[in-house]
Amino acid sequence: MATKKEAYLFLSAMLRAREPGMLSRDKAERMLDAPSFEECAKLLTDCGYEDLSQKKAGEIESVLADRRAAIFKELETMVPEKALVDFFRIKYDYHNAKVILKADAQGLSESGLLSASGRVKPDTLVNALREGAYQDLPKALAAAAQEAASILARTANPQLADFCLDKAYFAEFKALADEMDSDFLRGYAAVLADSTNLRSAVRTMRMGKDSGYLLEALVSGGSVSPQRVAEAGSGEGLTALFQSSRLANAAALGAAAVEGGSLTAFELACDNAVNGYLGEAKLVGYGEEPAVAYLAAVENEITAVRMILTGRLAGIAPNVIRERLRDLYA
Questions:
Q1: How many Cβ atoms from other residues are within 10 Å of residue 129's Cβ?
Q2: What is the dihedral of CA 66, 72, 78, 84, to 10 degrees?
Q3: How many CA atoms lie less than 13 Å away from 224 in the CB half-sphere?
Q4: What is the C-alpha to C-alpha distance for residues 315 and 224, in angstroms, rounded to an integer?
Q5: What is the DSSP string of 37-101?
Q6: What's the mean pLDDT in 265-286?
């Protein structure tokens, strides 16, 4: 009888074969160096994308959203454990819940802002939140959405509602990793939580907010507890907290950002620390690790493609776009 890891043998081999065709740093550099947007976009066809050279910004976003949804759907039919793809889908459920609640509170339309990449269809989520059909939602999402709606109604503060949904998202994220009994997924969830908390701490300190406010924004599941992050008190305190972690460089840049340094360099270091963790999957022959790393790489690739194409379309200097690009897995 095949072990759990052996059940991923075929999928791991297939995804490894796809990796060379993904957007690499070299390919991204060629796109940035192209003399025009049209030529930049055409280079992307080498990575399996349709020709986007005649597309506008909104059309590009639609194509990228469709590509993500198609890859999620394909992988769901191939992974031994459906929860692995849900690990990436849940982010979009919570994003959609935020959009719907804010739109309702402000009397606006959520049209065009919802993602089809979640576990729950956007229409189902809209109906659940507006008609109280919470039985149609996953239990954790339903409970969080109800609590966030109550917070918003009571305080009229959308940020507090977002904090509630963020905490629930990371709790469900970790629960899925535990459900799959995967140390690699647990590690991924932890480094994401640490990165999120470090960002929240730096932003809060730059705004001059107190530790009580910060504690509301922090999420659980990281290697450093929310209480310790809230008590850090300064950029130097954050550097000390994370000095033995893969976020050590990001924390040092965060300390500089607290004093007015570059937020872009700090954010980039946070993302690259997470990508560095995922890069360790390259050392694993087969199992859930290559599948997780591939799905994360797809997300990063789509982010990079959006940044390059919309930036070039808007006439942003290639060097400015280059400074904001995260490390790529391929």
A1: 22
A2: 180
A3: 28
A4: 41
A5: HHHHHHHGGGGT----TT--HHHHHHHHHHHHHHHHHHHHTT-S-THHHHHHHHHHHHHHHHHHH
A6: 91
Inter-residue contact 253 to 243 (CB < 8 Å): no
Cα-Cα-Cα-Cα dihedral of 283, 182, 162, 251, to 10°?
-40
pLDDT band at residue 1, thresholds of 50, 70 and 90?
very low
CB 141, CB 120: distance < 8 Å: yes
Q: In the chain, how long is the greatest CA-to-CA distance?
A: 58
| Among 199, 198, 189, CA closest to 88 | 189
Helices (H), the chain: 9-18, 25-33, 37-43, 57-76, 83-106, 122-131, 139-155, 158-180, 183-207, 211-217, 226-230, 235-242, 248-258, 263-279, 288-313, 318-324
How crowded is the C-beta side of 243, counted as CA atoms within 13 Å? 9
What average pLDDT does range 237-261 have in this prediction? 94
Interval 214-228: pLDDT, tens: 999 999 999 999 999
Distance CA 73, CA 282 (A): 24
Q: The tokens of 247 are what?
A: 């976020």
State the amino acid at position 213 in one-letter form.
Y
For residues 294 and 287, give the distance between their C-alpha atoms in angstroms, rounded to a whole number. 12
Distance in angstroms (rounded) separating the CA atoms of residues 308 and 306: 6
Distance CA 30, CA 308 (A): 11
